[in-house]
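[Q] Does anyone have a clean structure-token version of this?
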Amino acid sequence: MMKLVLLLALIPVVLLQNADNVDHQSWDRVAFRPCAGVRPVPRELRLKDCPSMPCLLPRGTEAKMAMDFTSVQEATSLHTTVTATALGVTAPYELPADRAVACNWLVQSRCPTSTGEDLTYHLSMPITAIYPLVSVTIEIDVVDQTQQSHGCFVIDARVVPS
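[A] Here you go.
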């Protein structure tokens, strides 16, 4: 029983280390569009293997991005919301639960965050083999416990065969 408790206690530590060990500086810096409304934009966005828009997202892989942003207020928690629009239909994209908690994927930082703190957030988003081969607009927003946006952007992508 004690081994199980110890193992469960170590899982978040291993997950947190994943973001810290990602070499995202060599990824492609990409242009993005701001989200609708008055939501802050990232200082910089980097995507792995995406030299130009639309990003090509091969089925069965993961889309990887790193977003540099400045915390607009103190945040005890950060959550990622993803919205996808394809073929005229807009729907939420449900991230796996462990990936939706943005605090777990801050690089060299943790929640709580302070107002004005410069942060880097890393996200790996699964592109499953069942996704249709379509063009898609993706909106990613990092929000805190009060639903205040800390960074939001829109990119264009296309799901392609692996």
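[Q] Thanks! Anything notable?
[A] The first helix runs from residue 2 to 20.
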